[in-house]
């Protein structure tokens, strides 16, 4: 158990510091095979008001997931200036979870990438493509064994649908206004 000084040090940095350290790790040129998926990836595409509330990072890798999780845990400990994080096997085989020793909350899950995933590099980080994320959510909502995730993935699909509609509408308006200024008068 951490003493009061360690707790204060941790809470003064968390959660912005956790996100900063994880993003720095993901941008590291020595880790080009990592792809972020899940809530953080979805939020990378959506406007702030459509983002899902999520703190943890889901990361896929072609390399040794356990070794990569240990490296990220060491980076987080160094960033916080103490032994504040640990690595443990997650529920799914081949996935390793990095958890805060202070709060017990997961900050990242690192899994072995089982198939090729299309991604988009944004601000130096590889995020699973929106198409991949949408297809995965659709697949999960149709899988009876994944019933525990259906509510979450249906919510994801709704958010993506709103985003795509908004994006399409914005493109059309921009196109119409640029090429046909008279259309502004008709609306």
- What would you call the quaternary organization? single chain
CATH class of the largest domain: Alpha Beta
Question: How much helix, percentage-wise, in residues?
Answer: 40-55%
Mean pLDDT over all positions = 86
Number of helices: 7
C-alpha end-to-end distance? 64 Å
The outline comes out as globular
CATH topology call of the largest domain: Beta Polymerase, domain 2
Describe the structure.
- The protein is globular.
- The chain has helices at 4-13, 16-27, 39-45, 65-80, 130-142, 150-179, 183-186, and strands at residues 35-37, 57-61, 85-89, 95-100, 106-112, 119-122, 125-128.
- The strands form two sheets. The chain has a five-stranded mixed sheet. The chain has a two-stranded antiparallel sheet with strand order 6-7.
- It has two domains: 1-128, Beta Polymerase, domain 2 (2-Layer Sandwich); 130-187.
- It is α+β, with helices and mostly antiparallel strands and 187 residues long.
- The protein has seven helices and seven strands, in the order H-H-E-H-E-H-E-E-E-E-E-H-H-H.
């Amino acid at each position: 158990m951490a003493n009061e000084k360690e707790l204060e040090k941790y809470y003064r940095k968390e959660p912005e510091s956790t996100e900063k350290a994880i993003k720095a790790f993901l941008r590291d040129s020595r880790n080009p095979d990592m792809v972020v998926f899940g809530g953080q990836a979805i939020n990378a595409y959506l406007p702030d008001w459509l983002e899902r509330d999520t703190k943890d990072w889901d990361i896929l890798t072609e390399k040794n997931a356990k070794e990569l999780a240990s490296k990220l845990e060491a980076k987080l400990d160094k960033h916080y200036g103490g032994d504040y994080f640990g690595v443990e096997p997650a529920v799914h085989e081949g996935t390793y979870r990095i958890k805060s020793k202070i709060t017990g909350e997961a900050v990242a899950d690192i899994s072995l990438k089982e198939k090729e995933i299309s991604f988009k590099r944004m601000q130096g980080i590889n995020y699973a493509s929106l198409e991949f994320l949408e297809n995965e959510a659709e697949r999960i909502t149709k899988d009876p064994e994944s019933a525990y995730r259906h509510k979450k993935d249906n919510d994801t699909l709704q958010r993506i649908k709103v985003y795509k509609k908004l994006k399409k509408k914005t493109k059309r308006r921009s196109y119409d206004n640029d090429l046909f200024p008279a259309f502004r008068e008709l609306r």
